[in-house]
Amino acid sequence: MKNKLLMFFILTYCINLKAQENKTTFGLQYKPIIPAAYFNSSEITKDSNGYKFNLNPKYSNSFGMILRQKINNTFSIESGINYIQRNYQLKIINNVINIEAETFFGIRTYEVPLQFLIYVRASKHWHLNVAFGISHNVLTSDIKSYAKENTYFFQNTYRKNGGYRALLANVGMEYRTNKKGYYYIGTSLHRPWREIARSYPEYNDGEHIFNNESNFFLEVIGSFITIDLRYFFAE
Questions:
Q1: Which of 8, 66, 122, 199 is deepest in the core (most CB within 10 A)?
Q2: DSSP state, 160?
Q3: Cβ contact 157:5 at 8 Å
Q4: CA end-to-end distance (rounded Å), the chain
Q5: Could you tell me the residue range of the domain that residue 8 belongs to?
Q6: How many angstroms separate the CA atoms of 225 and 33, rounded?
Q7: Which CATH number covers residue 49?
C-alpha cells in the first residue's frame, strides 16, 4: 500500500509535468515540534520490578529546504530535505531503594518528504492549502547517554535499520507577493506507521542491577505535530 501511494505521487507528477506552467519555487522552513497525546507522542510511562520510567519529549525542532513544483493554479508538488532534532528526557524512579535520576538525549533524523498540495485562493494575496503525502526518514545514529548526577543510570537507544516511512498531512495559509516572495504559516502531522527506535534503560551500582540483559525497553513512537513557518523566494 505504501509503495502504491508513492508511485501514485510520482506518476501524478510525471503526467502533469508537460501540461504545467514551468515554475519551480525554492523556500526555507522552520518547524517547532509539539508533543501531542492524541497521536501517541506525549510522555510514555512504563514499570518493571519496582522501577518506574518516564520518557518525556522536550522542546524539539526541524528546519530545511523546500522545492515546490507548480502543476496549475490549484495543484502543486512539494519535496525537499529536512533536519529533525527530537529531544527526550528519560527518568528513573525507585522509591524502595531511593533512586531518582534522569538523562537527556536527542534523536537526529534526515527527512525527504513528498507532498501533493491543493490550494484555494481566498483573496488577492491570501491562499489556503491542504496537503498530504509520505516521507522517508533516516536516523543518523544509535544513542547512549548517562545521567549527570548518577552515572549508574544510563540508556541506549537503537534506531530502526533502513529508516522508516511516515504519513504527512498539512493545513495552512500563505501570503503571496510578486516581489517579496511568499510567507506561509500552518501546522503539520508527521506519523510513522510503527515505532522509530527503542530505548533500553539500565541501572547498575554494583548492588542494584536492572536490565543488564536488555530485555526491557520503551518504544519511541516518533509521531509529532509542528507549527510550520516558511518563506519562499520571489520567482
A1: 199
A2: P
A3: no
A4: 37
A5: 2-232
A6: 6
A7: 2.40.160.20
| Burial annotation 177-203 (CB, 10 A radius, 16+ → b, else e) | eeeebbebebebbbbbeebbbebbbbb
The partner residues of 215 in beta bridges, in order of sequence, read none
Helices (H) and strands (E) in the chain, counts: 1, 15
**Domains of the chain: total:** 1
Q: Which residues of 4-39 are buried (b: 16+ CB within 10 A; e: fewer)?
A: eeeeebeeebeeeeeebeeeebebebebebebeeee
Q: Could you report the per-residue pLDDT of 47-78, keeping only the tens digit for each?
A: 998 999 999 988 899 999 999 998 888 899 99
Cell of 157: 537507544
Q: Is-contact 201 216, C-beta < 8 A? A: yes
Q: Cell 533512586 identifies what position?
A: 99
Q: How far apart are CA 166 and CA 138, in angstroms?
A: 11
DSSP state of 15: H
